[in-house]
Design goal:
The protein is an all-alpha fold. The chain folds into 2 domains: 87 residues, no CATH class; 69 residues, no CATH class. It starts with 22 loop residues before the first helix and ends with a helix.
Length: 172
């Protein structure tokens, strides 16, 4: 589900293409995710998936035909997280990302983070990976309903994104 990497990649490997935030950046972020995963660093691999979701793609790029948006990859990583490896709390991470994201394509990235939040929430045991209820109370935040997430991604996301995401979610 990710590009093959022959050797470990340096952390800044994808920075070269970060400004363009296009196909090359997307693929490099996926390569770096694979590199971290293979080195037993699942939390870092998931952070690279976040970067891939930041890419400015409309949905018909050649790279997406080979490497679709990594909702399925995230699902697989969460389900196959190595015992004893640091994965952080992806549920909390995506909640914070969705509520604090800034920069280019902020709104789209926030809705993608909510989608990832729901995937993590469905896959991971809540007693080990709870949402940040304190943030919700202190900031008066409400978690958007799944249907709202899908509606916003239909409006803002790339072509075929909601079908891909919904397919991954239906398999959970």
């Amino acid at each position: 589900m990710l590009p093959t990497v022959a050797e470990p990649l340096a952390p800044g490997w994808s920075r070269v293409a970060a400004e363009e935030a296009g196909e090359r950046f997307y693929e490099q972020s996926l390569c770096l995710a694979q590199s971290y995963w293979r080195r037993g660093k699942p939390a870092q691999a998931i952070l690279q998936l976040n970067k891939a979701f930041m890419a400015d793609l409309v949905g018909d790029e050649a790279v997406l035909r080979v490497w679709p948006l990594p909702y399925g990859v995230l699902n697989w990583m969460l389900r196959n997280r190595p015992a004893g490896s640091f994965v952080g709390n992806p549920v909390r991470h995506f909640q914070h990302l969705a509520t604090r994201v800034s920069g280019p394509r902020r709104e789209l990235r926030a809705w993608r983070a909510w989608a990832c939040y729901y995937l993590a929430l469905k896959v991971l045991p809540e007693d080990e990976f709870p949402p940040d209820r304190e943030q919700l109370l202190q900031e008066g935040l409400e978690i958007p309903a799944w249907e709202r997430v899908l509606d916003e991604l239909r409006r803002l996301g790339s072509r075929g994104e909601v079908g891909l995401l919904d397919g991954v979610a239906q398999g959970l």
